[in-house]
Specification:
This protein is α/β, with parallel strands linked by helices. The chain contains 8 helices and 16 strands. The longest helix has 15 residues.
Length: 300
């Protein structure tokens, strides 16, 4: 059986990777998960300078998922390059660095720094608020999506994945904008904006008031958006949003995703990614599927 998939010329041994922000930069899970068994490790967001993140509380459980308002806390590119990349290089897996920023210049600075580092791909998180545009996220305006994609591509030495926000009216417009800007791959979905109120304390469950909803509750929305995007663009798609097991992952693949990312499930079950890999293998054996690529977009 062939489990290998190709993303813009980067070959992954299997289609399973981690979702940014749920797996640290690998070391946090290294004792429990054999990173050699994953197609890729996607790091938490990395900015040009350290970000402290939002005030606490920053996480709240919800029915079928969770809300987070971490605020992309990270140590910055200098610490990341010195500490995290060497750790990941010990393993036979692809390294995908998630990049965040508050202005286009922030993104470009990190992308340029990573050009000389031994990483395989860049995932650009455009759900960050664009400071220069009054705080609206880059990913909520198709013109901004195309513009930042084009600018990042000018400076990037590795293939570029644009991570799309689901908090939009029509996901296909955003997917096409990323493709028009030169994106090599798109990944979706990022979290849905949600809110939880603590009725006993009569206040917001997270200090930020709103946060990103993830977990099984968002999966049907995510599968639908991946399907729509896959039918709107010609570039590969990484699907994510509520994947807890192999069955969930296969839904995304059948909807048109070439690869999948496992996120919130890692908090509930640190071994989730390995289980998804073995589950896909079992499915392929059961249905005599010789090549995982035959399943990509098989449901029309």
């Amino acid at each position: 059986m062939n489990m290998k998939v190709n993303l813009a010329g980067v070959e992954l041994k299997n289609p399973v990777m981690t979702a940014s922000g749920t797996f640290g930069s690998g070391a946090e899970y290294g004792e429990m998960v054999d990173l050699n068994g994953l197609g890729a490790v996607v790091t938490k967001g990395v900015a040009n300078v350290p970000w402290p993140g939002n005030p606490t509380p920053r996480i709240a459980e919800t029915y079928g998922g969770m809300i987070n308002a971490i605020g992309l806390q990270n140590p910055g590119i200098d610490v990341f390059a010195k500490r995290d990349i060497p750790y990941l290089k010990q393993y036979d897996t692809k390294i995908i660095v998630n990049v965040c920023g508050r202005t286009t210049e922030d993104y470009v600075e990190v992308v340029e720094r990573l050009g000389d580092e031994p990483v395989d791909m860049l995932e650009i998180n455009i759900s960050c608020p664009n400071v220069k545009e009054g705080g609206i996220a880059f990913g909520q305006d198709p013109k901004a999506v195309e513009a930042i994609t084009r600018e990042v591509k000018k400076h990037a030495k590795q293939p570029v994945i644009m991570k799309l926000s689901p908090n939009v009216t029509d996901i296909t417009v955003m997917a096409k904008a990323a493709e028009a800007g030169g994106a090599d791959v798109i990944s979706l979905i990022n979290t849905l904006t949600g809110m939880k109120i603590d009725i006993n304390r009569r206040t917001f469950a997270v200090a930020n008031k709103t946060g990103g909803l993830s977990g099984p509750a968002v999966k049907p929305v995510a599968v639908r958006m991946v399907y729509q995007a896959a039918n709107a663009v010609k570039i590969p798609i990484i699907g994510m949003g509520g994947i807890m097991n192999a069955e969930d992952a296969l839904e995304f693949i059948l909807a048109g995703a070439t690869a999948v990312s496992v996120g919130t499930a890692n908090f509930h079950n640190p071994y989730a990614t390995a289980g998804v890999v073995s589950g896909i293998e079992s499915y392929m054996k059961k249905y005599n599927v010789e090549d995982i690529n035959d399943l990509v977009g098989a449901v029309r």
